[in-house]
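lol ok so funny story. i was supposed to be doing the assay writeup but got distracted and ended up predicting the structure for this chain instead. priorities right. anyway since i did it might as well share w the group, maybe its usefull for someone
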Amino acid sequence: MSRRVLGKKASLIVKSIFFVAAIYNIYTLAFVAYDVYQHMLINLLYALPLTFIIYPAGRKSVSKVPWYDYLLATASLITVGVLLINFREWFFERLWLVSPVSTEQFVVGLVFISLLLEAGRRVGALPVSVIATALVALLLLAPYIPVIGFRTTPQRVVEFLCLTPWGVFSTPLEVISTYVVAFTLLGAVFMASGVSSFFIDVAKAAVGRSVGGPAKVSVIASSLFGTVSGSAVANVYATGVFTIPSMKGVGFNPAVAGAVEAVASTGGQIMPPIMGAGAFIMAELLGVPYAYVMVAAVVPALIYYLGVFVQVHYYAVKSGLRGLAGAEIPSLKEVLIRRGYYVIPLATIVYLIAVAMWSPVTSALIALLVALVLSYVRRSTWMTPKKVFESFAEGISEVVSIVVIAALAGMIAGSVTYSGLTLRFAYVINVASMGIVAIALVYTALLTILLGMGMPTTAAYVLAASVAVPAVISLGVDALAAHMFTFWYAVISAITPPVALAAYAAATLANEHPLKVAIWACRLGFSSFIIPFLIVFRPILLGHGHLTPLETSWNILIAFIATYAIAVALSGYLKRELKLVERALLLAGGIALYIPGITYDIAGLITVTAVLTNHLIKHKVRPPQ
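and the output, tada:
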């Protein structure tokens, strides 16, 4: 949903509230032993009311805020304020689902749920809001529904969703109010202080001159920028503004240009060190440090980007596309000498999370401070008071919609738990899959992609993790692999038609039909549909298992070769046009390499090696005219 264009005074007031919220979050997360429920409520205290001010009720964006939006904002402020004032008594000084629910608690909770549902619709999460509404209706009408119904009361439903740690105030909102707030502020400061532009210039200098240079810049820049944004759509707009026009300028088809950016940007959510919000939720659900998830994601992310990079390269070679003009390419040596110190903030966060094992929140805030200090090395990048104000306000502005969606995601997860749908769905998957893991994974993948159509990654992952992951784990799949499988499919829903948010964002920059961009994105990102299965059946790629270093290296090498072979087959070009039979054999060999087992490894290697060797020999003997 587009944002309302506010007047100058109203915009300043809203930005000031955002800035205060940023200072509160930085101070609280860095220096205060805070109560997490109180902290979530304080973030809702500004996010929910401002949603009705910033986002209009309809598609038309207007500068004037109508009276009913002021009414809804006021109701939100009062409702969340009452919850905040009474949170200790209502949350901790009563027995959940045992103590009676007062009329005041019931009314406040009911109004709170209604406001959240409308706020979710306004921020563009209509599918989330619809699903949440349907589930709440199911709970309220449960006593009257045959077969799947159960005994409950409206008071208990409202209590479970609003006054316990299993509904709105559960893991999704907790993670967004801590991890994601910290990293979103970090990303905003990185943008304002020049860290992000440094990464883009490094990518330009490294591959800008090569064939199809702008596309390769997009892949590398988006992967690097994704490490500090963790958002596919934000990544598209941040790097696509430069890369998509550059790709079109050297001859890339607009649909391909948009698809390259969409796929590269989507990978930002699976690329450590800063992954999508769902990765932080995954760590909380698994009860492991975020560093554990981050390290496990490295090899699969590299495999993903290899598949994209190889296809981009051979598409450019096949089409005879050139690189960037010399004037557009900065000197790598000069970039590193003049601004190489911008590596320090990223190195800091990697060291603190992966080596020192510090909290991701603390690590992000320290990296934020480092970026602020380093901005004063050069006069042109100084973080002046105005730039600090703008970057902090922009960071919290991005959080508002995510806070609302996280609250709805918690409501959905709580409703699923309270209704018993989790157990029912697990039973259905077990029966439908006949206990076969591969079939159960296919069902889970389809469900997650379906949920992700128009639904943010975080919400899609949380819901799928609630209903499908337990079923997969019950079949003997490793818990981290099961969650990572679901998270990957939640992420790639951003490029999967018919509703592909990252592809649609790229399409607007490429001036191309969104569906064309999405179809090309699925082709370029083919590995993203296979890697999740590879994660489950070759868990060594996550660092799991008891294999020797040699066996581990073998499995990783096989995965890279398989991805390369399939990428070449899909691009249809190596040294010359590949014949249909060559493409088919490469595709078959790559798929065989993906299947676990030494027999498949040997068969796949022989097939791929034979095809590539034959192709190269023929090219050498009879080069193309």
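Residues 173-399 form one domain. The chain has three domains: 8-169, 173-399, 546-625.
back to the writeup now i swear
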